[in-house]
Write a structure and sequence with these properties.
Blueprint: H1 7-18, E1 39-41, E2 44-46, E3 52-55, H2 63-66, E4 68-74, E5 78-85, E6 92-99, H3 107-124, E7 129-138, E8 141-152, E9 155-157, E10 160-162, E11 165-176, E12 179-188, H4 199-209, E13 211-212
Antiparallel strand pairs: 1-2, 2-3, 3-13, 4-5, 5-6, 6-12, 7-8, 8-11, 9-10, 11-12
Organism: Halopseudomonas sabulinigri
Keywords: Signal
Protein name: Lipoprotein
Length: 218
């Protein structure tokens, strides 16, 4: 039976692309929001369900870290954690976890990529164009990774507006034990509005720090 994105996850996914939340209620975590159920210590995040751990893409001591927002959605079979920052408003990092009962080899990868492509192409009315496809070592296992380009037209909603921009989407899919992770990262191309210096280095550091648990989670 196909694994589908839950409505809460779809809302998380698209809301980050449409706008950035304002920073509020800064607390002992040193970031804009502290209402998270996962653990955050010195720029290292661990999911509340212990499914994965990763260094935050925006590092402690930076303006981007101080204005970072972490959104979480946990479910018995799937969960998603999203990292954004108002200092890099078009740079979004998503970790989508699938827990146990993985379908036949390759099927979940095909389902996940198809659903994400459909979400972004329907949301913005433009296609994703392939740039690279390669294998990548993450968390001690081989992951499939790819980068695609997409043109995002100018848009407005709820009194907010955004300029047209060309962005890059990169995804990484890996399985370990009973679990799978689909990591989706998007950012403006370097010469585009909203591009921030060091994005590619942040992506490399984020991916290289990612740890997916192999233990059963359900």
């Amino acid at each position: 039976m196909p694994r589908l994105l839950a409505p809460a996850l779809i809302t998380l996914l698209l809301s980050a692309c449409a706008s950035q939340q304002n920073a509020n209620d800064a607390t002992t975590t040193g970031i804009a929001n502290s209402l998270i159920s996962g653990e955050l210590e010195h720029g290292h995040y661990r999911a509340a369900d212990d499914s994965f751990a990763v260094d935050t893409p925006f590092r402690p001591g930076s303006e981007a870290y101080a204005s970072m927002h972490i959104a979480e959605s946990f479910d018995i079979s799937e969960s998603q954690v999203l990292f954004t920052s108002s200092a890099a408003p078009v740079e979004v990092y998503r970790v989508h976890l699938f827990k146990g009962n993985l379908p036949a080899e390759g099927e979940l990868y095909r389902q996940a990529t198809a659903q994400y492509f459909q979400l972004f192409e329907e949301r913005y009315g433009t296609t994703l164009e392939p740039i690279t496809l390669q294998d990548h070592q993450i968390s001690g296992v081989s992951a499939t990774s790819a980068t695609f380009g997409q043109y995002i037209p100018a848009r407005s909603a709820l009194g907010m507006s955004a300029d047209a921009v060309d962005i890059w989407h990169s995804y990484y899919y890996l399985e370990r034990g009973d679990n799978a992770a689909f990591i989706w990262i998007n950012r403006p191309q370097p010469d585009q509005p909203g591009a921030t210096a060091g994005a590619e280095e942040r992506i490399d550091a984020f991916i290289n720090s990612f740890e997916l648990t192999s233990k059963p989670l359900r």
